[in-house]
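Structure first, sequence second, as always.
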């Protein structure tokens, strides 16, 4: 009898691992992260990162699930998810463009870059194009002030941008003419050349 109970318990444990109650297998990744981090409340940001990587954005259901699993108030989880610019509560486009509007970038035409991108793609910062190809957003500072103005295209930091060249670069990325891995940040040797010229 004890063996039957043990077998039933192991079968139900395997079934629980095999499929999340929602039926969405992406929850396995979130559950794995929760287990690895031992359901610690101070691991919230890492769990949210894992959830966003798995789902592409943080839906209301995902925030509720995370709050429940970590035994945190939903308001706390929502507050963290909305405080950090790298979390999104809406589905993102196939490509992402984040323009830094920190002081160093702003004085070097970052505002004009945002305006040109908005005009070209017909969206405001914080929106995604209707075809789902591009999400445009802004950030207060990306910490690369020496490369101002800076933007992040599909996770790659690109510096020393100008409004016209940025629009062309983003258009090429969205059209599939360049791959995200081909995006190179500004060369450090440019900084040396500029410093030597002074």
């Amino acid at each position: 009898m004890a063996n039957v109970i043990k077998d039933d318990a192991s079968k139900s444990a395997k079934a629980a691992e095999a499929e999340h109650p929602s039926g969405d297998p992406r929850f396995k990744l979130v559950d794995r992260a929760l287990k690895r981090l031992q359901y610690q409340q101070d691991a919230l940001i890492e769990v949210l990162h894992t959830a966003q990587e798995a789902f592409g954005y943080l839906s209301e259901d995902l925030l509720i699930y995370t709050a429940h699993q970590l035994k945190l108030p939903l308001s706390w989880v929502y507050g963290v998810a909305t405080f950090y610019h790298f979390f999104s509560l809406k589905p993102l486009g196939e490509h992402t463009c984040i323009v830094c509007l920190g002081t160093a970038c702003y004085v070097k035409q970052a505002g004009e870059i945002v305006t040109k991108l908005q005009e070209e793609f017909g969206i405001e910062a914080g929106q995604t194009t209707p075809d789902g190809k591009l999400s445009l957003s802004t950030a207060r500072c990306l910490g690369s002030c020496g490369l101002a103005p800076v933007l992040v295209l599909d996770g790659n930091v690109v510096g020393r941008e100008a409004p016209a060249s940025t629009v062309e670069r983003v258009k090429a990325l969205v059209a599939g003419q360049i791959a995200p891995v081909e995006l190179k940040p500004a060369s450090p040797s440019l900084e040396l050349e500029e410093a030597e010229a002074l």
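Margin note: The mean pLDDT is 84.
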